[in-house]
Design a protein that fits this description.
heterotetramer; A mainly alpha (295); B alpha/beta (257); C alpha/beta (404); D mainly alpha (327); A: 295 residues; mainly alpha; ABC transporter involved in vitamin B12 uptake, BtuC; two-stranded antiparallel ribbon; C: 404 residues; alpha/beta; Rossmann fold; five-stranded parallel beta sheet; four-stranded parallel beta sheet; 13 helices; 14 strands
Chain lengths: 295, 257, 404, 327
Amino acid sequence: MSSEQFVQYLISGLTQGSIYALVGLGFTIIYAVTRIINFAQGEFVMLGGMLSFVLANSVGIPLVPALILSVLIAAAVGAIMYVLAIRPARRASVVSLIIITIGAAIFIRGIAGQIWGKDYVRPPYFTGEEPISFLGANIHPQALWIIGTTLVATIAVHLFLSYTMVGKALKACAINPSAASLVGINTRTMGLIAFVLAAITGAIGGVVMAPLTITSYGVGIMVALKGFVAASIGGFRSPIAAVIGGILLGIIEAFAVAINWGPFTSDYKDAIALIVLLLILLIRSGKLAEEERTG
Amino acid sequence: MSESVILETKGLTKAFGGLVAVDKVDLSIEAGKITAIIGPNGAGKTTLFNLITGVYPVSSGQIYFQGGLLNNVPAHKRASMGIVRTFQHVHLFGNMTVLENVMSGRHPRSSYGFFEAALRLPKARREEEAISLNAIKYLNLVGLGTHAEHDALSLPLGQQKLLAVARAMATEPRLILLDEPGAGLNTSEKRQLSDLIRNIREMGISVVLVEHDMPLVMGLAEWVIVLDSGQKIAEGTASQVQKDPKVIAAYLGEEVE
Amino acid sequence: MRNYLKYAVVLVLVAALLALGGISCSEEEVIKEGDTYKIGALFSVSGPYSPLGEPEKQTMEMMEARINEAGGINGHLLNIIVYDDESDTTKADILATRLIEQDKVLAIVGPTASGTSMSAVLVADDKHVPLVACAASEPIVNDEEGNEREWTFMTPQSSNQAARAIFGYLQEELNISKVAILTDKAGFGVLGVAALEAEAPKYGITIVAKQTFDNVNDKDMTPQLNIIENASPAAEAIICWGTSPGPAIITKNWHDKQMGIPLIQSHGSLSNTYLQLSGDAANGVMLPSGKFWVANQLTDDDPQKAVLLDYIADFEALYGQGKANTYGGHAYDALSMVTMALGEMENGLTISEARTDIRDYIQNITGFVGTGGTFNMSPENHHGLTDDALVMVQVVDGKWTWLE
Amino acid sequence: MLAGLKSKWAYLAAAALLVFLILIPFDWFLGRYTTIMIFIGIHTIVTVGLCLLMGYTGQVSLGQAAFFGMGAYISAILSKTYDVNPWLAMLIAAVMTGAFAYIIGYPIFRLKGNYLAMATLGLGMIIYILFIQLAQFTGGPEGMSGIPYLSIGGFVFNTSFRRYFLVWFFCLAVLLISQNIVSSRAGRALRAVHGSESAAESIGINVTQFKVKVLVLSAVYASLAGSLFVHHLRFVSPQPFDFLASVKLVVMAVIGGLASIWGAIFGAGTTHILSDELLLRFGEWDVIIYGLILMLVMIFMPEGLFVKLKEVFERLRLRYRRRGAEP
């Protein structure tokens, strides 16, 4: 394939991958701190996108404040979800907790559908829609916004975890909850922070991707599944790994289409991504088993 | 090797990454005797058990059971060969009754599977009959006969430990490894335990126990092996090892704390 | 203790014997003067197909209210029972059965999607209840042997009709003979592929590239477009088959790539949502359309003009500017045919007789002008929509314009 | 004959349940629920498998719908496309699905807990994608119709009244078989694996092998249910076997109390009656309320509604007893 097409596929993969990455990031943060797989993660993305549309187009707030407000509201929803649905169910099993998050997802989605209707919507582009030519490939400006934002968000999260008190406390919980609580870290507060953080990253993802990818009340579940795969490829351990997993997933899918031969076609790209996930899980199985025992 | 030796290790070594938990240990356990393995914390006693029962693969060296090489025998097969162990942290099956716990110990001594069970074929009923009869026998051996229908975890710790022994005995072992059976028991419970262990020995079963409680060990063990930081530093009769300067040195390290 | 079990076993045998009788529930209640007519409706109000199901449901509620305000049908008030199948085929089966056996409806309108329609169709056909589906696929009206099903009808234009409209235009107006197709992996797109492949040869058109997209997951179809660009022999036009949001994204990707070959969307993209989603990028895109979207451009002698303008006006008065779309129109056509049948029905029939009566009436409807086109039903044709129902339209400055 | 039923009361209870089940489909009783009951029966069969796998052996599966779907599709394809006798097709489907479970079992059970959940979820989705993409066999996303009814000799199961008895015959058979298994040597082995894998190994239980065996069993159950499913609907499409379907199955198992065979009926029952009966009157809000109930049940009774109810019943009985005892 020609070089500019290679670039085209790469950019396309990066754009898709960035979205997966931001969702996977949220999955990982929550999982690391609370050992919960939060399938409501996609709903934060949905909220980000729908809210930015409603606020910017329907209510008519200027774009930037509208975006910020959307993220804040989503964060609030994340907090409420943790306090009302997750915290009371600490004694529940892995499975029960997964079901709770799915219940929450169904609930949030249903409410959104009731309030905003079932139709697909597209919030305004951040900066127009005239494609930018780059190494012979045409790139939509919004795609650059998506990739850029993901980069910034990832770095921000990384810095937050490594250089702030709260961040370090979160890390401590992730490594060893019981020890963390021994040294006086309130694991429940940490859980709350984790959910808010995850909601924020998710909503940011929703906000930047919605103009390009189009959104509706129902996009959450599929976004969640993809982000979940991304996080799994990243091993649910470090945020960075999750982001890499997401980008990888996006690029695999883009080039799976590009190869366009045998099973490597647009038909099977989802399956290919999942097979990669399984292989990674099985290769790392020994190590994972250890983690399960210790963690 | 002499017939009277039931278990033997040659240069047995286990390393976790850099840390060597068991270091070139040569043991030979006399058949039909009560042997105690003692040593300060982190001496590698439990790791030794885990190697003998196949929880961990050995890093190097050999384990022989009744003259046969044991290294590559999968853990679950060792029980039917006659090696069984109990755990420091009891590890009872919480989702079963006391009796069912012991019945599950009959697993290697029975054979019927899903199919026979599903249709309750005669074979299943016959074996099930035998299984429960045997289980009750071993339950009575440890004196828990009256608690058969209780939930395993509803018992006090002392009885839980006895139950664990009954479950292990139900597999009809030739060699039973007891990991700190005395820990957390009060004096009367300990007396009960020692009687039980002597009983088991009388049945011609070789007993190896890891124990911290010196009086208990000295009262029971006919042979004592001392480990320190993964190495065998001494062995002999109780009175011999007590006098051994290396042993005292090793323990002094502990008494201080 | 065994004997207790023996009792149970005996009971099972007894019941099994009874089962041999296979008692079937018969509707013998008679509909008297002034009774309300019960009509069932089954739509995907939630789940992936809800963007289609919602306006269908709204249309039903609008018409029910209108008819009852006007005193009902020959003094019979209309009671429309609407259920949400959640785009779930299992649920569609349960709810269709419920409408028939529990609610004892005279006829069923819907379901929304071809999948849910199939499970409902099999139930209706089995229990002899007329069903007018708002989805179009062959098996809804024809059984495996290709015979017309006795009890089921459908109102939307079929994918084959759309394909014929497109190919006809490509051949005559643009004399294009090589096309690439890019279709939704899910139901609607699959129908599209089948239709396109079946119709293309008849117009001497060859399909030089076939790509699919995942309507929920794919956020960028540039990779697929790249493949199409590289196809040899080169494609002279791209035909895309799907419902929102995929086609809108493709339109944008197509615009960003500046591929220089025309993009043709299917009738699945005929909605203001599509225009809103794809913005300026949509300009120049061509689609096969019912006259719905060009209603105001129709000449006054076109019988559909009045029907369409009325429906759109009524719907948007209730549910908001620019909300009316063809999906609601399908429900309108379906319910209209049912109510026409009810209008001609005399009193004193049992429920099962009434159902037969409605079926017989609908399958003999001719010249009924609906939002989708003119219907000429017959026992051999339970679709009845003629090809002239579809015209080609083009997006010009964000508006649908008729390519006469 | 039947393990677990010890007292004569247990026998009477079983007989009563049986009589009730037999009467349901008659119009003068609860006939209008026949269709829902058919699906309850079908889902109960799958749920029992999940209970054995999750509740007794402690292994998570978020991909059970894949086995359900394999049974459905293999039955559909063989009996429709290749005119194989439906009963034979059903058998082949069960064998193939079981074999598939056996093959994936060994690698997948190198994983535990959450990672096992991820892997099973991934597998489930891969199978689902295959249902869509292998269109030349499966009919693709549009699915395939025209699947024949089951029949014995001349007796065709062509009314829901008849299919009701067919489904519940299989359902009860599966329940009895499972009841026998859990109270057997194999059942103890499974529970031992759940209780403590190292202890199980130490008394000679081949942990991995038993995990695989129970996975195979649950897969065979799911396959059987899938076959009954398609011969009832006579139409199959991928949608009933997607990720959400797997979740619904797990929900049924959890509500029924993971470690309780007969709870499965209750789990499948409440879930269906809730979403196909009670919630209908809430119109558009049904989905929202469903989500809410899901959360509440899991938060306040994570061990399942059925188990909770049993506790309450026990407590009441004891109080009653005590009253009786007082002079």
